[in-house]
Write a structure and sequence with these properties.
Chain lengths: 149, 304
Amino acid sequence: MRELLLLDQLSKLVLEIRRAGQTKELLDQLSELESKIEREGQMQELLDQLHKLVENLLLESMKNDYIANEQEDIHREAMKIRERLVQLRKKLFDQNTEGYRESTEALGVVNNNLQTALNRINNLTEFFGNTARLVAALDKLIQAGVSAV
Amino acid sequence: MKFHCHRIWVVLVLVTIVIDGCKGGVNRLSEPVGKFRIATEGTIDVAQPYITELNQVERSLRFTEAFADPNMDVDGKFLSPIFAPEGIRARLDCFATISLYARRLAEVADSSTGKKLRTNTESLGASLKDLGSRIESITGDKTINSYAGPVSALIGFIGELWVQNERKKALETAIKDAAPQVNKILCLLESDLKMAHQGRTEVLLTRYNELRLVYNRKKATLGDAERRERLNELERLANQYEQLMSFPPQDVIIEMKRAHEAMVRTAEDLDKIETFRDFVDAVEVFAMRVQQAQAVFSSFRDAY
């Protein structure tokens, strides 16, 4: 919630700083917020908040309150923040990759065990089918033998 | 001999009671686990493009920016992927493994396995009976024929009992062993899909805004045909954005998590009817959510 409020303030700040042409100040503040939230292990929350900020800025830039040049400026600010956001996403994506690898390997062992159980079940089923055919063949053989005698 | 035959029939009755007691729990899993498998495959259908197209989505934005800004050069950045291809590959491998897991669970839970076994043992019983009759006609000995029927039935029942127990044991063990891994994968996937969905909505909104700004800047100089074309594109992007916002794909994963948790609880005690009912309900909701997602996503596979 605290972070949400901070980002709401930042969202307003974006517009103010844009008017004064102080993009660097905004990005510095964003960096500070990013590292603070990352330190607290709230990466997902940070991504959610930055996503909301980018979306809000893009929607803001579509308002008729601004002249065309101002709209383009707000759009560009949103894109700068989005660039940072994409880098954070890439970081999270790479972090998650190892988790997928480990889980895939462990689940593969379960799959092999399931296949072994399936083979055992199918083998028994097939065994009875094969034995039935064998007995039927034996019966025919005896019948043929009796006829021959 | 009559005494022996009676004993066999008593054993048969006892075995039948035991089988009926234990096969209900395993056999009734057949349908919900089968549905879980179909819904899992549907989930992968929905999730996979979000992962495989991560880089294409970002790239499409770069090209839109290049269109909007005539001074921008197209350089190597347009080609190089943002999200590592080996990371995408790890996720695709994971999809294949989880799909195989759901398929094998469904195969073990499949109640027709028991039916097939019974058909084969009945066939064995018939063959033994024929053989017994044949030997009786040759030797006059009635022993074989009188035992053939009950013995083959006993083999069938014991075989079925063995199969039911194997299936039960395999399902309980697999579901229990896989649970932590499946939970972890679903959490990762939920996070990935949320991220990919947010990325897609931003890209759609950005593309819409870029093209809108260009349109507004140039509209007075455009002919009617080009104006129409550009407005159509803006309309298409606006519609796609609205659709995308209406159905976040991670919602499917949330339902899959619930269905999976219910399956794990059911596997802890296959004979407990309350947990089984919860599982059936959770799978129904999961399957319905997947169907909704498939309907929505099939209408805008190129929505970026």
